[in-house]
Amino acid sequence: MARGWESKDVEAQVESKESPKASSGRDPKSAEQQVREQDIKQLQLSRTRIANDLSTATHPNHRKSLEAALAHLDKKISDLSYSSVQSLRAKVCVLCIELSSFIE
């Protein structure tokens, strides 16, 4: 009996994983978008670790080094986020042009 329940549970988990992908009305993300989002997540994790290290650092030179690392990570995250916004704006412009030519 437990074996049957487990297989049904696994089946339900697989279906729940697949259903949001199938039901979402969004276009699939391009490889570039996926890489950018992954890079941002990795940078955010690094930023969290550096911030935690900074909260416990006592030596002034070590703190200064960690603060510089935080500033660098913030800039990289900002640059990646900005480029993703610019990419979305470009896609919207293309869609607007296609729509206006369709209406005419």
Task: Annotate the secondary structure layout.
Layout: H1 2-23, H2 31-56, H3 60-103
How would you briefly describe this protein structure?
The chain is an all-alpha fold. The chain contains 3 helices and no strands.
Describe this structure in words.
The chain has 104 residues and is mainly α. It has one domain (32-104). Helices cover 88% and strands 0% of the residues. It has helices at residues 2-23, 31-56, 60-103. Helix 2 packs antiparallel against helix 3. The longest helix has 44 residues, at 60-103. The mean pLDDT is 78.
Amino- and carboxy-terminal Cα gap = 64 Å
What would the average pLDDT be, to the nearest integer? 78
**Strand-pairing-aware structural class:** mainly alpha
User: What is the number of beta strands?
Assistant: 0
**Cα-atom radius of gyration:** 22 Å
**What general form does the structure show?**
flat
Question: Percentage of helical residues?
Answer: over 70%
Number of helical stretches of at least 4 residues:
3
The amount of beta strand, in percent, is under 5%
**In total, how many domains does the architecture comprise?**
1
Low-confidence stretches: none
Order of helices and strands: HHH
